[in-house]
Design goal:
homodimer; about 240 residues; Rossmann fold; DNA polymerase, domain 1; globular
Chain lengths: ~240, ~240
Amino acid sequence: MKEIKALFFDVFGTLVDWRTSIATEARAMLAPLGIVVDGEAVADAGRDQYQPAMEDVRSGRLPFSKLDQLHRRNLDVVLKDFGIDHVDEATRGNLNLAWHRLTAWPDVAEGLSRLRRTFRIAPCSNGNISLMVDLARRNGFAWDAILGAELARDYKPKPGVYLCAAAAFDCRPEEALMVAAHSSDLAAAAAAGLGTVFVARPDERGPGQGESVASTPVDLSVRNLTELADLLGCH
Amino acid sequence: MKEIKALFFDVFGTLVDWRTSIATEARAMLAPLGIVVDGEAVADAGRDQYQPAMEDVRSGRLPFSKLDQLHRRNLDVVLKDFGIDHVDEATRGNLNLAWHRLTAWPDVAEGLSRLRRTFRIAPCSNGNISLMVDLARRNGFAWDAILGAELARDYKPKPGVYLCAAAAFDCRPEEALMVAAHSSDLAAAAAAGLGTVFVARPDERGPGQGESVASTPVDLSVRNLTELADLLGCH
């Protein structure tokens, strides 16, 4: 492996368990309105809207909009599809902010803290800066900077998002590793010249419904971030 | 005062003592080449090139370039003006990176740490992201994010730089305070709608050669960041 200076991290699914958090909040917030929902189904339906919403920006059909705004549009679609379009504005706003309150997988805070002793670390996520800040505060992530979509004003897997992160840290693409639980993200990062680390999050979309093995060639494959810290000699 | 959610900080002069650090490094790096310089004069001469260089970007004469690149151009001008144009490329590169190794004023790490318990905090500096990251690591600044010129792709005091920082933290301009040791910075922030805090750094440009009193109306005036933390109830 070449000399690595920086590690970039995907966040949703790779560092935080979006599905359980969104499902729990959806159930809890809709119950007082007399609405009983399958929280996981709401979470999955929202996530199904995720790529199409970003594709509107990537393709140029929509000017760059923060992920919070796209999430809100997606939420409105989901509530309509679930036949609960009468949910009030305040509840919608609060439910949308559930994305700022996601809980990390248990290895992440320790793994990041160890990795940071040796490398510059930053999220390279499609989430906006304030969302990343809230997740970091909630889960004890100590980032050097928040990089990703809002800095690049475009969405992954467009190559510019990875290249913008590397440029911000003054490193060539091959001096950075992209760490993610999704093969599509890693394939795009590799195409942009970055090294790649696959982290298995087999339960991301429900038990056994995440990727347990990368379906694209990667430089390293680990089960969690503490294993990555061990492999990279960060003790 | 309205409800404040975020604090933005100027960095050069306000948080770090650029003059002493640059003077010391210039002296130390040039001595092995047999060059004896007045380090403070070199530092001041570099700083004199600072506003004109950024003005080339603000005016549109130069596309956005990171401050590291402008600093390098300024350094070449200074070495020529001092009649030491024979300094080699490696020394120039290293001397330019002295801006990444500036030392903080003694109150800063503690002050920021206390302020962060209540507010989102970020630099809103003209320095580039990697420069801010290195200063943070060296001096123990724990930022929520690195905002400022590289995110806005323009230089203070253009209003877009302050507004871009506020937007990244999802706050209206009046929900943020700009903290700086320079009246010109605070006047521009106030014109963009932000609240303002003046920090006296009377020795920034040499003993008694910094601003000890703001020359523009400000919301708060303090002697250091621990006093600001006291005033804002951050214990």
